[in-house]
Structures are given as structure tokens and as C-alpha cells.
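**User:** My hope is that you can spare some time for a protein that puzzles me. I have put the entry right below:
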Amino acid sequence: MFTGIVEELGEITDVENLGDSCRFRVRGPVVTEGAKHGDSIAVNGVCLTVVEHEGDEFTADVMAETLDRSSLGAIAVGSRVNLERPTAVGARLGGHIVQGHVDGTGQVLERKPSENWEIIKISLPADLARYVVEKGSITVDGISLTVVDAGPDYFTVSLIPTTLALTTLGIKQPGDPVNLEVDVVAKYVERLLAAGQGAGK
């Protein structure tokens, strides 16, 4: 489990095409400290498994399903990525519960800079819109954010200078894809309510 609090802005140093999958090499001095084979690291919000670790880099295999359902299919050498290790049991939950299971992708639609913050508008797939509410939580490229405005096919988030400086949302431009993970609690509530209605028939 992750919290959506990005630990560092890493970099893709190699992409190896394996036919129906890819192997990424990622540089991240913070998240690789103490890393070992089999550990999980979230890359732009996608939970990946460490295959190899050497120095300040690790490699991870990415299956076709993940490449198709996330923005990782557009990753290239030199791409900057948000990195986070799983939260330790008993640690503070600074963001919200994040699984690292991407529900879909959106696109940055526009950026509105202000003096001390910036509003970013992001497109929202129709099948995810029911899970996104004003002042609720959403994960964008692995970043735990609060929804400012929730429309039928978009939402907005307000970013403080720290988020702009230390994550990929500081450099994303209109048209760029982003990974989206909606609040897992909302999905469980929906499933439980549906089961309850079925039992009452």
C-alpha cells in the first residue's frame, strides 16, 4: 500500500522492449536505498516489482496489460517519473490509501497559474466519473490530491509550489497523459451497496 506522497522525482534510464512487455531501468537514489529483489516501488502511481537493483537504479518488468491501461506505454529514456516506496506499518498516512492499481488515464487539459499555486484541469474517463467528488481524494501519476471541482468528464486540482517542484505535475503540459487511481473506498462502497440491493430482492 502507498499513500500518494511522492518521495522523489526519478528518471527512466533505459527501456528494453521484450515483445509483449518492457523492462524499465529507473534512477532513484532515495527509493533504491535498501531495495532488494521483489520489493514494490510505485512509478507514476503504478506498483512495480524490483527485478534488479544496482547503485541508485532498479529495473522492473512491465506487462502488456499495464502498458495498455496506464501512461507507462508512452515512457521513454529521459522521462521523469514520480517514485514512492510502500508505506511501513504504523507510519503516518500523509495522503490517502493508494494501491498502485491504475484505474485509467486522463489528459492534462489546461493549467491556470496563480501567484502561489496552480490549478490543473484533467480529463476524466466516463466510467470513473462516479467515483470522483468535490473535496474527495484522487491519485494522479501517484500523487495524492484533493479534487477542487468535479465535472462529468473532468476534474481540477490545486497544486502548491512543493508539488509543482517535486513531481511530474510541475512539467506536464496540456495533452500529456496521466495515470488515475480513484479512491478505493468509493469502489468498495459501490460494490457493497449493489450487493445489498440484490439481497433485498
About this structure: The first helix runs from residue 64 to 69. The first strand starts at residue 8 and ends at 17.
